[in-house]
Amino acid sequence: MPAPRSLEPLVHTSVNEAVYRRLRDHLMRGDYAAGEVLGIQELADAFGTSAMPVREALRRLAAQRALEPMKSRSMRVPVISRARLEDIRRARVLIEGTVTAWAVEHITNEELQSLRGLATQIGQSLADPRSVPDGLENNQLFHFTIYRAARSDSMMATIESLWLQSGPYLRATRELMHSDERPSAEFHAAIVQAIARRDADAARAAMERDICWAFDKLTAHRAALTGA
Distance of alpha carbon 53 from its chain centroid, rounded? Predict the structure, then answer.
């Protein structure tokens, strides 16, 4: 098993929820690779908690199809097939595109201003290899600011599940973030501009282009998917 990551200890308030949210965010950002085993005691030691909240968090994540149980009672990040990845891609394009269009009707000026700042930071991170982790975190904040603006709890639950399932495989695109194949900073700028114009169709199309970039690159770089 890979060496435990340096994870910050958690405060005691709502430890179960805190452990779940921390693991959820790591999975969404692709901090764990496809096929990686997550040991209960190793995670408990890293978080500074007992095994119980870790076990409960892993159980919840398995129910969301982000992890799969092993005979050792540990959990593993699933190894995904090309067909499954394409299925997730279709679902994300459909659902997240739709929710982005909904957000156009409800987003506040404060949320829009936050999006502008995040888009700028993401663009800056593409120019500096040292800023990839910050860029990934800002990308997650950017997307979920939009999705929350749609004011749909039901859709948010579905989107979180899709991000959990796709995150470990999108980590394969990290090596492309500062290559000639890196995504354009214009992806996020176009989304913000369309939302600011209250153009739902353009916002949906811009979001779909942003989502498709990583999945299309993963399909093209098959070796990164399989670990070969």
Answer: 22
State how far the Cα of 55 lies from the Cα of 127, in Å rounded to an integer.
39
Residue 86 and residue 35 share a domain = no
**Of the candidates 105, 201, 198, 91, which has an alpha carbon nearest to the alpha carbon of residue 151?**
105
Question: Hey, what amino acid is at 40?
Answer: I
* 168/135 Cα distance (integer angstroms): 16
Domain extent at residue 19: 13-77
Based on the fold, state whether residues 36 and 132 are members of the same structural domain: no
- Of 28, 53, 77, which residue sits at a domain end? 77
What's the rounded mean pLDDT across residues 87-91? Answer: 93
Predicted confidence (pLDDT) per residue in 14-66, tens digit: 889 999 999 999 898 888 888 899 999 999 999 999 999 999 999 999 999 89
**How many domains does the chain contain in total?**
2
Kindly state whether residues 90 and 160 are assigned to the same domain: yes
CA nearest to 132, candidates 183, 83, 91: 183
N- to C-terminal Cα separation, the chain: 18
C-alpha atoms less than 13 angstroms from C-alpha of 221 in its C-beta half-sphere: 17
Amino acid occupying residue 22: R
How far apart CA 147 and CA 132 sit, in angstroms, is: 23
In a domain? residue 98: yes
